[in-house]
Amino acid sequence: MHFAYPPRKTSNPPPFLPRQSKLPGLLARRSRLKVIALAGLAFIAVIYILARLSGRHGGAAHHKPSGRPPVVLVTVLDEKKYSKAYIDMVKDNRIQYAEKHGYKTFFAKASDYELKGAPTSWASVVATRHALTLFPDCYFVWYLDQNSFVMNPLLRIEDHVMKASRLEALMIKDQPVVPPDSIIKTFSHLKGQDVDFVLTQDKEGLSTGSFVLRNGEWAKYLLETWFDPIYRSYNFQKAETHALEHIVQWHPTILARLALVDQHIINSYSKDSAGAEYKDGDIAVRFAGCTPGGAHPCEAESQRFAQQWRSNFKNA
């Protein structure tokens, strides 16, 4: 029996077929990556341009006050509780002082703002915020309540209170925010140039009837935080004053810009205040503790100083 022989291998193998080149695919991938990179750069460029345009023309967040006017003097008036004669005298006092220094006045009515049942004293906060909107170029706002008079027309807020070197000398550092034993104290390392909010305290705590605020984004943040509905709806015994005490003690970002000064600097009392009673030369006097009527009416208390402030202004 014979078996078939396996087929004989040819001595002429088929031609070698080269492996297909990867170059076209590589080029295609590189091309796609290039397109993606260019698209990414274009997107970043668009965002950058829009941001620049927003910063240049959107303006509000980067607005730098020109100082025209340097100061706005804000007072909230309650025409329902006080006589027209008293209201007119308070206005005249503010206007004469403002005109002497090139300041502006802003008189708001307590009824101008929707407080949703909160005490009318809250109007001081929103009125100050309103003033910043009306006078975006002012350097400072001085809020002074209606139960007070400016007494020294020679003193300017910029120099008497807000000048950095002056603040360095005036600031009460490492002081309990709510006397006598609050564990939260004013910063001991705060510099005058970093202060945006100046107010005083009496024996009971912070006193919000007279305060000075530097215009800027931080001021808006403070006022909007202070006026938050949460605080307005809470039944604080002293409304906006106790709300501020709470905020200052729980928000280091606010305490870090706050300076307490002696009451004689911006907030002397007419009486019943050991160490803080008005004396000649003080910039203002407040009739602290007075009421529209009753045993200690504000209008009666004001008469002790009405002639004096007019005389001081006339002789200045």
TrEMBL record:
Any Gene Ontology CC annotation: mannan polymerase complex
Q: Does the keyword Translocase apply?
A: no
Q: Which UniProt keywords apply?
A: Glycosyltransferase, Membrane, Transferase, Transmembrane, Transmembrane helix
Q: Where are the transmembrane segments?
A: 33-51
GO biological process assignments:
protein N-linked glycosylation
Molecular-function GO term, any one: alpha-1,6-mannosyltransferase activity
The family line of this record is: Belongs to the glycosyltransferase 34 family.
> What name has this protein been given in UniProt?
Galactosyl transferase GMA12/MNN10 family-domain-containing protein
